[in-house]
Amino acid sequence: MSQSIQFNQEKKINANLADGTTALWKKGLFDTFSGVNNVKVHYAKFLQEQIAAPTIVIVPGRCEAYLKYQELIFDLYQQGYNIFIIDHRGQGLSERLLTNLNKGYVNKFQHYVDDFQYFIENIVGHSSTTKPYILAHSMGGAIATRFMQDCPNAVKAAVLSSPMFGFNSGLLPKSLAEALVAAKLAVNSIISNTPWYFFGQKDYYPVNFTNNKLTHCPLRYQHFVNVYKQNKSIQLGGVTSHWLAQGIAAQKEIFAKIPQLRTPILLLQAGSDIVVCQQAQVDFCQKLHTIQPQSCPSGVPIVFEGAYHELFFEVDEQRDEAIKQSITWFKQHK
Question: Which keywords, in A-to-Z order, does the entry hold (predicted)?
Fold first, then answer.
């Protein structure tokens, strides 16, 4: 069977995605646990009948929900993996942290990491006989990396897709952008106890496909827009200044603690990504590979030329290759 038809294809995308996706979803187990400060965190798991099946933990990005990942869950499950996926605090089906449910907010970035550690140790660990693999996207890549720094022996191998190791500040120099975030946060804290949106951020609204910077695939884009339309409880708007400040601090901590990483890591970079900073990904790979040669082969990311931010929702050619690269990496680290 050729790689081009091994995974679900765009032409099969409809209300139920791939044949069998709905049936798999009915087999899923959906539950919650109490995260830091008793915040209710939702998750889903899909277990193989084979007891010793390997496990992949999917770590979504900011504002994502596991409901968005049905197609990828189906494809990975068909490859023989147990699948676990978490909705981070403050997004998806998990408990929101502010009165305005639309605002992207977290009290401390470390709370994402601590929630994830509990998830791995107490949920994934109780259902899997071996260490899991991690497949993380964007903000999920930052969370997973911080977790692997805190718990260097917990994971067999990891793939980071478009990881949030730096923000794309556009024409603004990084230092000026960070100063702007700090200034807005300082004014906010003086005037109000309610976290404000950062400049240009607002409540949830769907973006037309022609203006989106996430994927070139109109069918996949429309499908996940429909998922958010049909499930209003998972809608999330822009980010607060506080969230940005916490994200910047976490990114600095990631680079400061690169020597603590022991897990073999592969980094997939979207060539036309304007959501996160590509140079930060390159810097990460170079520094990590120098210390741990088994990670980031040749010291560089795997680049998907022309791809937008969300590789696992891209057009078939790029998406298929991203999944293939991920599975190949996992199989190399049994």
Answer: Hydrolase
Q: What distance in Å separates the CA atoms of residue 133 and residue 328, rounded to the nearest whole number?
A: 12
Give 182: exposed, middle or buried? Use CB within 10 Å, 0-12, 13-18, 19+: middle
Residue 110 has pLDDT above 80, yes or no: yes
Domain residue spans of the chain: 3-331
CA–CA distance, 310 with 173 (Å, rounded to integer): 25
Helix (H) or strand (E) holding 268: strand 265-270
Sign of CA dihedral 288, 294, 295, 300: positive
- For the chain, what is the largest distance between any 2 Cα atoms, rounded to a whole number of angstroms? 62
CATH topology of domain 3-331: Rossmann fold (3.40.50)
Q: Give tens-digit pLDDT for 58-68.
A: 999 999 999 99
| CB-based burial label for 183 (10 Å; 0-12, 13-18, 19+) | exposed
Whole-angstrom CA distances from 272 to 89, 185, 217, 307, 320 are: 29, 30, 14, 5, 18
Model confidence at 108: pLDDT above 80: yes
Q: How many residues does the chain have?
A: 334
CA angle 303, 282, 185 (to 5 degrees): 115
Q: Is 190 exposed, middle or buried (0-12, 13-18, 19+ CB in 10 A)?
A: exposed
CA 292/CA 266 separation, integer angstroms: 12
